[in-house]
Design goal:
The chain has 512 residues and is of the alpha+beta class. The chain has helices at residues 20-23, 43-47, 81-88, 111-120, 138-148, 236-250, 267-279, 297-314, 325-331, 349-354, 359-366, 373-376, 416-430, 436-442, 444-451, 457-471, 475-486, 489-492; strands at 2-3, 26-39, 53-66, 70-74, 96-101, 104-105, 121-124, 159-165, 172-178, 193-201, 206-210, 215-222, 225-232, 285-289, 317-322, 334-339, 342-348, 505-506. Strands 7-14-15-4-16-17-18 form a 7-stranded mixed β-sheet, with helices on both faces. Strands 1, 2, 3, 5 and 6 form a 5-stranded antiparallel β-sheet that branches. A 3-stranded antiparallel β-sheet has the order 8-13-12, with no helix packed on it. α6 packs across α7 (267-279) and α14 (436-442) crosses α15. It binds adenosine-5'-triphosphate.
């Protein structure tokens, strides 16, 4: 599989369409983002005469992720969620559109800006088994990003000092306020880090010591005062290892585990390692790509709580990808519902769950298993049929082939279920796959009475005439007859998915 070349030139809704008001609290702004994969076209495909086709995994989506929020991205498998997350992080090359991070265009960044973006924006993958290198210790895995980015940046010889008056006495503990350069070695509180140093009188001169593996202290008499200095004595590698240990502790593991290998951990613990790795570069934004889907239900809540706590502690912004709606409900501030490469609906979580507008959102919610006993017996049939192929998505509204609310033409009266049968018939006729002999055998009218029993009046007459054309082998004429009568706005026109002033989207003609 190859990835199609980018083409940003002619995209609507590009950076220039952004207004200051839209951007006020957006950390990430995604506009007209597209990612098409080129499927086929390799040597074997050419030998077999197969043409390359374009998989429209993400096909023009717009949304913002606001600072400090968790935006959920949900939808059935294959609708383009992971592709969206990976493309906006520039882990995949976009086919079109723009992404701005903190006001800077991600796809236009030079090497220096990209390096900084890669520190500030991280990803946690779904599968904690395959996403950790089995040959590396978890300490090395967590520290790897720091190593690649040359962190810590500070010179290990950097020192910070305090002056003590001898009159203060000598055998005592003093606290040295540490320069920023040492902050990565010890934890700072409100931006200020302090190191306790013990100063005492030695045989000939004062001595200082500090109880820390990576720091050392010296003391020197300067006229009437004592000059106490704290220096980093650990190497960069040791500092990274220490930070990895602290991060493992922060995610609920132990710093003693830095030398263990991934296979020594359970699934939930490995995912904690993946989270520690994402935190190692002090990011602002994290794409969480189904972070709990592969975990036991009992462990899921613990990891979700951890993510919630970390968000608050470090002021993180999340894009939370999930196919399971029940997971996003408790962690997301807003939810974007994706269908076949497009955003169907986006809004505040409560609104999406309690008052959804898009028929796809409603159907997705209906398909969530209910805990309430009274509802357990309910069989959900709303999301019938398969998701169409992203190689050849339906025209107009992509959900129309499965939608229970397709809008019939204004001038005809027809029940939704009957209209759905007509649309299914149209699809078969347009594909040329209705067998003329099957119609000839019973006659057009009888065929229609059996297959579409609820159809009557002019609607029935039009279908009869189309079926007669099928019986004559003329599928094209039959398709044209049916289209003329039954064509719906849902197939001719793509619904507007531009976010409104509040950032909400309902891409459905019923809302026009
Ligand atoms: N490298 C690739 N080459 C070709 N097609 C791809 C590639 N990666 C993904 N796709 C296709 O793109 C579409 C979107 O896939 P994507 O993984 O983004 O969806 P998803 O919503 O994250 O699904 P899932 O929940 O199953 O991961 C799918 O049809 C998928 O088969």
């Amino acid at each position: 599989m190859t990835e199609t070349a980018p083409d940003n030139a002619d995209q609507p809704g590009s950076a220039t369409d952004r207004t200051a008001a839209d951007d006020a609290d957006a950390l990430l702004e995604v506009r007209s983002l597209r990612k098409h994969y080129q499927d086929g076209g390799g040597l074997l495909d050419r030998v077999l005469g197969r043409e390359a086709t374009s998989v429209k995994a993400v096909d023009g989506i717009d949304f913002d992720v606001r600072r400090g929020e968790t935006l959920g991205l949900v939808g059935e498998s294959g609708c383009g969620k992971s592709t969206t997350g990976e493309t906006l992080l520039r882990l995949r090359e976009a086919t079109g559109g723009t992404v701005a991070f903190d006001g800077e265009e991600v796809f236009d960044m030079d090497d220096e800006s990209i390096a900084s973006f890669r520190r500030r924006a991280q990803i946690v993958f779904q599968d904690p088994f395959s996403s950790l290198d089995p040959r590396m210790t978890v300490g090395a895995i967590v520290a790897e990003g720091m190593r690649i980015h040359g962190l810590p940046e500070s010179d290990p010889t950097v020192a910070t000092a305090a002056e003590l008056s001898v009159g203060d006495g000598i055998d005592r503990m003093v606290e040295v306020t540490v320069a920023d350069d040492l902050d990565r070695v010890i934890d700072a509180d409100d931006g200020v880090a302090r190191v306790p140093v013990s100063v005492r009188m030695g045989e000939k001169s004062p001595e200082a010591s500090v109880d820390h593996d990576l720091l050392g202290a010296t003391v020197e008499e300067r006229e009437a005062d004592l000059h106490v200095e704290v220096t980093v004595t650990g190497s960069k590698g040791e500092i990274r290892r220490a930070k990895a240990g602290r991060l493992l502790e922060r995610v609920g593991l132990s710093s003693d585990q830095v030398d263990r290998y991934p296979h020594e951990f359970s699934g939930g613990q490995r995912q904690r390692v993946g989270i520690a790795r994402a935190l190692a570069l002090d990011p602002e934004f994290i794409v969480l790509d189904e972070p709990v889907s592969a975990l036991d239900v009992s462990v899921q809540a613990q990891v979700l709580n951890l993510l919630d706590d970390l968000q608050e502690e470090f002021g993180l912004t999340y894009l939370f990808i999930a196919h399971d709606l029940s997971v996003v409900r408790h962690i997301c501030d807003r939810v974007a519902v994706m269908y076949l490469g497009k955003i169907a609906e986006l809004g505040p979580t409560d609104q999406i769950f309690e008052n959804p507008d898009h028929p796809y959102t409603k159907a997705l919610l209906e398909s969530v298993p209910r805990a309430e006993v009274a509802e357990q017996g309910r069989r959900v049939a709303t999301l019938a049929g398969d998701v169409p192929s992203p190689r050849n998505p339906p025209s107009g509204c992509r959900f129309r082939t499965r939608c229970p609310k397709v809008i019939p033409p204004e001038d005809i009266e027809i029940e939704q279920s009957t209209f759905r049968e007509v649309m299914n018939l149209r699809e078969t006729v347009e594909a040329g796959s209705l067998d003329p002999e099957a119609v000839q055998e019973v006659g057009a009218q009888r065929y229609r009475e059996e297959e579409l029993p609820a159809l009557d009046g002019e609607n029935a007459a039009v279908v009869d005439s189309a079926l007669e054309a099928v019986a004559d082998g003329d599928h094209a004429a039959a398709a044209a007859t049916l289209r003329e009568r039954f064509e719906t706005v849902c197939e001719t026109t793509e619904p507007d998915a531009t976010p409104d002033a509040s950032g909400d989207v309902v891409a459905c003609h019923l809302e026009d």
